């Protein structure tokens, strides 16, 4: 039973040493190569159980085995890089093995228990790395989204907006920045008819019909915003409504046009022009 623990212990510690070396030298080897190197190191460690093979314990043989493990576990472009990898690999071995014996000598804890603690510490670091990555991702998502309040004709509408550098639209009439907003957000002001309207293929005639069928206070706010699709030479039109003002992070911003759209995305309800944030 002990030999089984011994093999597992060496395999895991060897893998940790190779992985730590890979991180330090920024040479990200595939998992298969790292496990293969760890397996070779484990086979060599089993030799220590057989005193009759003591010739294999000598320094020259140890250097040969270390070199083989380095060649198997890492990729390199030239001899200089191989030498650098080997040096770091030796230093990591010395540090981890030395730390292990230091703990054993001063605490009296069994060797296998110390190895178990090292394995646990490594696994914990790996888990923390993924947790930190998730936290960074959430922070990034938070940074690219803003909660905005749209004030239009005395009404207030709150929605989540994605900050998108692809939206640099401006109203040509007043040179105002444009925010693309789902029409359903403004239902209370524009009514059911414009909420269900297809805004994908707008033209001047359709806009004129909308203006003619809308009440005067709303009709006076309509704006036409020309734009081009990526990869297309044909221009299109966005129907916009001049807002009273918008609020972002408790800052009031005027001279903003709301572009109506029916885009389908459950994560946000508006696409924010990043230029709007420059004055905040």
What's the topology here?
Blueprint (H helix, E strand, L loop, with lengths): L1 H24 L5 H17 L11 H15 L5 H29 L3 H33 L1 E8 L2 E9 L6 E2 L4 E7 L4 H9 L8 H10 L2 H4 L2 E7 L6 E8 L2 E4 L2 E3 L2 E6 L8 E3 L8
Parallel strand pairs: 2-10, 4-9
Antiparallel strand pairs: 1-2, 1-7, 3-4, 4-10, 5-6, 6-9, 7-8
Describe the structure.
- This protein is 50% helix and 20% strand.
- The chain has 8 helices and 10 strands.
- α1 packs across α4, α2 (31-47) packs antiparallel against α3 (59-73) and α4 (79-107) crosses α5.
- The longest helix is centred in the middle third of the chain and has 33 residues, at 111-143.
- It is rod-shaped and about 100 Å long.
Largest sheet: 10 strands, mixed
Total E-strand runs = 10
Q: Cα distance, first to last residue?
A: 68 Å
Task: Briefly note the structural class of the backbone.
Answer: alpha+beta
- Describe the global form: rod-shaped
Q: Assess the beta-strand content as a share of residues.
A: 15-25%
Provide the residue-averaged pLDDT. Answer: 80
Please state the CA-atom Rg, rounded to the nearest Å. 33 Å
Residue runs with pLDDT of under 50 for 5 or more positions: none
Helix content: 40-55%
Topology order in helix (H) and strand (E) letters: HHHHHEEEEHHHEEEEEE
Number of helices: 8
Sum up the structure in keywords.
alpha+beta, 280 residues, ten-stranded mixed beta sheet
